[in-house]
Design a protein that fits this description.
Order of helices and strands: HEHEEHEHHHHHHHEHEHE
Strand order of the largest sheet: 3-2-1-4-5-7-6
Number of helices: 12
Shape: globular
Radius of gyration: 20 Å
Number of domains: 2
Distance between the termini: 39 Å
CATH class of the largest domain: Alpha Beta
Strand content: 5-15%
Structural class: alpha/beta
CATH superfamily of the largest domain: Vaccinia Virus protein VP39
Helix content: 25-40%
Length: 298
């Protein structure tokens, strides 16, 4: 088994899912299996269906007849559940973060602290790498990626410099990219700046925003009435999509009403935004930006 991070907000996730011993649950982001293991402990003759597109996670899958694992992107959840006649389900969970295992592998290219290939693919058989984006996107597309996914105010200057640098030499590894952009970091915030830039590329490489939208839209179709949705996000754009969808059933957050003025909603919020305690953050620094939202299908 590969050593992975401590599961984030574990107790709150389990509490939010309100697990029934004979229910069917989905872990859309299996990773190291921490959350999945806690769900399995509460199942007797129930079923857990888990997904993860990273083939490394397969080393963490236990031999348990209650667990069905798919090495696939979670945007295909409904198809697999239909195929195996497991609809509807009683709970759906996703942790949208990158595992510490992925961050710690130099050859995966997720972290600026290593000099490795500009890869960043969760699914290593996918076609597009971070190097493809850095070397082939035009200036405006690079600006959009850095501004919207990295929330970098100086995205224009960064993109312009990248385009200029790649004309003389292809940018192939994380060290090259770091050297080119690090001087744009605000004083004393180099690590955070680089994390934001790398995050932006990772989100684009893996089409994470569209995958999340697909997951949320499918949640309406796959969950039982009374079924729970629990999502941990680490980026304001992701959290806003989750919040708006729970509130309104769309990504704009606009609640529609019927002819009589009744709100047309699919979910009710179980609790307000849940964030880790100071104690958990001290114990597990990865949890510092985590935001958990839990809702119940009406």
């Amino acid at each position: 088994m590969i050593h992975y991070h401590e599961p984030v907000l574990l107790d709150k996730v389990i509490e939010g899912l309100n697990i029934k011993h004979n229910g069917i649950y989905v872990d859309a982001t299996f990773g190291g299996g921490g959350h999945a293991g806690a769900i399995l402990k509460r199942l007797e003759n129930g079923k857990l269906v888990a997904f993860d597109q990273d083939e490394d996670t397969m080393a963490n899958v236990p031999d348990d007849e209650r667990l069905l694992f798919f090495n696939q992107n979670f945007r295909f959840i409904k198809n697999f559940l239909q195929l195996y006649k497991l609809l509807p389900v009683d709970g759906l969970f996703a942790d949208l973060g990158v595992s510490s295992h992925q961050f710690d592998l130099q050859e995966r290219g997720f972290a600026a602290r290593f000099s490795g290939p500009l890869d960043m693919r969760m699914n290593r058989s996918a076609a597009t790498t971070a190097a493809d984006i850095i070397n082939n996107y035009d200036e405006q597309k690079l600006i959009n990626v850095l501004r919207f996914y990295g929330e970098l105010k100086n995205a224009g200057s960064i993109a312009k410099t990248i385009v200029k640098e790649r004309k003389s030499k292809k940018i192939e590894n994380t060290g090259d990219l770091t050297r080119i952009i690090e001087h744009f970091a605000p004083g004393g915030r180099k690590n955070k700046f680089l994390a934001q830039a790398f995050q932006a590329l990772r989100i684009e490489v893996n089409d994470e925003i569209n995958a999340l939208k697909a997951l949320l839209e499918q949640s309406v179709e796959i969950l039982n009435a009374g079924g729970r949705l629990a999502i941990i996000s680490y980026h304001s754009l992701e959290d806003r999509l989750v919040k708006n969808f729970i509130k309104s059933g769309n990504f704009e957050g606009i609640v529609e009403k019927d002819f009589y003025g009744n709100k047309l909603v699919t979910f009710k919020m179980i609790k307000k935004l849940i964030v880790p305690t100071e104690e958990e953050i001290k114990r597990n620094n990865r949890a510092r930006s985590a935001k958990l939202r839990v809702a119940e299908k009406i």
